[in-house]
Amino acid sequence: MTDNPNRRHAIKSIIAGSAALAAGTALPSFIPAKKKTAMLKGNIQHSVCRWCFNDTPLDQLCAFGNEIGLKGIDLVGPKDWDTLKKYNLVSTMCNGAEISLSKGWNDKQYHSTLIKNYTEHIDLVANAGFRNLFTASGNRNGMDDETGLKNCVEGIKQVIGQAEKRGVVIQMELLNSKVDHKDYMCDRTQWGVELCKRIGSPNFKLLYDIYHMQIDEGDVIRTIRDYNTYIGHYHTAGVPGRHEIDETQELYYPAIMKAILATGFNDYVAQEFIPLAADKLESLRKAVMICDV
């Protein structure tokens, strides 16, 4: 997830509605462009983040998602859930309860609003038959790690019991603070893992964004192996630039996906890259095939 102007606009629209390199010739290790998607292996539950394809009508994106084997679409709020259901897709990561990426649980002044929002959205998500609900830590604004942890625990524990009863998993995203989200607090896996340990609930997990953590930490595969117990969802994108995940960038996604599978993970992996290619949907098709191990 990113907080660029398009992303910020998408968040505002969802919250309001929820009350409402061009890819070059593929190397042998990557899947070349095809007009028809081959049968998926069924090991990965594929998704895509809505905001990356905001210029594609949702109905068109859903229809294409069916064509290429997506299970659902990430970061879709309540006002668009009926459209997803029309295509037998799920909101693989629901949102709309957050205030913003920079104003989150680490700051007590936002607790009352967040508790109200999440109390409402947990029920909305559960009643819709979905499971995952996005959240963010907020920015540091001079705050130390320990204070941020304590504040997050204090706030989230006031809604986690309801999440447990309704079968909803609240997932805090790890975002880089080096390039895209200056001052964001949950910018290291170990900080997020410590938060999970203190909350102590199977219904609170980390949304591990591979793009973001490659920028701030690197060592992606080892981190996934060591901390997979605390990870409930994955996002992809190419580094640098957050574009296609093909041979134009530095990460090798087939190996990363195999590492994820080896942990026993069986939830969703969502593409969250901003396509540069003229045919954006074809870029999405290729990304799904690259990750289908």
Describe the model.
Helices cover about 40% and strands about 15% of the residues. Helix 5 (about 145-165) packs across helix 6 and helix 8 packs parallel to helix 9. It has an eight-stranded parallel β-sheet. It is globular, with a radius of gyration of 18 Å. It has about 290 residues and is an alpha/beta fold. Residues about 10-35 have low confidence and may be disordered. It starts with a helix and ends with a helix. The longest helix has 22 residues, at about 145-165. It has a single domain (about 5-15, about 40-285), classed as Alpha-Beta Barrel (TIM Barrel), CATH 3.20.20. It is built from ten helices and eight strands. Helix 6 links the parallel strand 5 and strand 6 (about 205-210).
Radius of gyration: 18 Å
Number of strands: 8
Strand content: 5-15%
Secondary-structure arrangement, i.e. CATH architecture: Alpha-Beta Barrel
Provide the residue-averaged pLDDT.
91
The biggest sheet amounts to:
8 strands, parallel
- CATH domain topology: TIM Barrel
CATH superfamily: Divalent-metal-dependent TIM barrel enzymes
Helices and strands, in N-to-C order?
A: HEHEHEHEHEHEHHEHEH
Strand order of the largest sheet: 3-2-1-8-7-6-5-4
Ends: how far apart? 23 Å
Structural class: alpha/beta
